[in-house]
Amino acid sequence: MPEYKQFPLADTAEGLTEAEILGWRVKPGDEVQVNQIVVEIETAKAAVELPIPWAGVVTELLVEPGQTVEVGTPILTVDVDPHGAEAPAAAANGSAPAPRQAAEEEMKPLVGYGSKNVVAKRRPRKAAASEPTAVEPAPVEAPPVEAVNGAAAPPRGGYVPLAKPPVRKLAKELGVDLRELVGSAEGGVITREDVRRAAEPSAPEPVPTGDRERRVPIKGVRKATAQAMVASAFTAPHVTEFLTVDVTPMMELREKLKTSPAFAGVKLTPLAFAAKAVCLAARRTPDVNAVWDGEAGEIVYKDYVHLGIAAATPRGLVVPKIRDADAMSLVELARALDELTATARDGKTPPEAMVNGTFTITNVGVFGVDTGTPIINPGESAILAVGAIRDMPWVVDGELAVRKVMQLSLSFDHRVIDGQQGSQFLADVGALLADPAVAITY
């Protein structure tokens, strides 16, 4: 007889509490295999594809695309014994159990899933005039919806054509329902052009004042960032210090290294020099790489640097980490930075790459900004903002000259780092950027 199992939303990263259903890869009636991708979700950290741990036939999708659900909530029902013996026509009380009434079982762990045990929560059921009594639910086909781009679109409920996170973001901004589009790219993938075409009005109309505003739900990366920044700003007493540095020698060394065979094909940026300087300076001031543990009443010193790099992406601000950055050479850091930023820009940073950092750099200079007062990432004690490099007048050996000048700003947790330690660290970073040869003294 049929055996129904409910697939709960898994904890795909440490601390995950909820996620948004971006789109289903299956629909009721589809056969699935073990570890087949069945749904794409968006967490506070990344877009993630979830595999299913059983083989069987999909009987019901319990959550609509666009809906945010808590970890442990059942999102899919599967008949794992679709070819077994038929169920009795009626139970003792005259009706057969519905799929959702089947026992909810703990999901077997899969590769990439967190180990956190969760208790599945039953989604509230909508009131209905009558309940089906058949063991296998009869799929109800929604009437075809005429797509905005002129083609027949898939039903609004259930399966959603694929679209990358930047395309989903654009659709939200333009007020386009992706469920009403048919993608023009291979495999039915929705493109930016599809969304823009759908957003074009059939005829120009006057726009009332009330329509000149739009509301976007606070969720995903934006929600997580806001919560983290508020928690940090009102928990850790921030102190911010500033330093202006003549980085002409660093820029000259950069041009020289570009011609070196060891740096062939490597994108060597000022950020790579800043990353190396932070790792070196942290050796002399380990306080900046420590963290306050209020519950344990301890300050935890880290003998490694997991360097976070704040990156602006179509999904919002993310901070992926370079693991053991302190053990890397300059060329290795440059390669790691290039790979990190490319992966983040494409929205492919895995959730595990964005946790357990020890220090963060935010490169505001890439936007032409000189400096700022960055907020410390939770779980860390300091963050360095690197500003734009500008040609500015500078006094060299008593004479005025035009030099390459950069501004640095360091925010630190005053519970862990005193002014002396913070100032020493910032001065060390500045000295290493002003004269990279100082590194041999560390």
Automatic annotation (TrEMBL):
InterPro entries listed in its UniProt record: 2-oxoA_DH_lipoyl-BS, 2-oxoacid_DH_actylTfrase, 2-oxoacid_DH_E2_comp, Biotin_lipoyl, CAT-like_dom_sf, E3-bd_dom_sf, PSBD, Single_hybrid_motif
The keyword Acyltransferase belongs to this UniProt entry's keyword annotation: yes
CDD domains given in the database record: lipoyl_domain (cd06849)
Ranges for domain Peripheral subunit-binding (PSBD): 162-199
Residues of the Lipoyl-binding domain: 1-79
EC number(s) from the headed UniProt entry: 2.3.1.-
Cofactors: (R)-lipoate
Biased composition (Low complexity): 86-101
Superkingdom: Bacteria
Spans annotated as Disordered: 86-105
Alphabetical keyword list: Acyltransferase, Lipoyl, Transferase
SUPFAM superfamilies in the cross-refs: CoA-dependent acyltransferases, Peripheral subunit-binding domain of 2-oxo acid dehydrogenase complex, Single hybrid motif
Entry similarity comment: Belongs to the 2-oxoacid dehydrogenase family.
Name of the protein described by the UniProt record: Dihydrolipoamide acetyltransferase component of pyruvate dehydrogenase complex
Species the sequence originates in: Prauserella endophytica
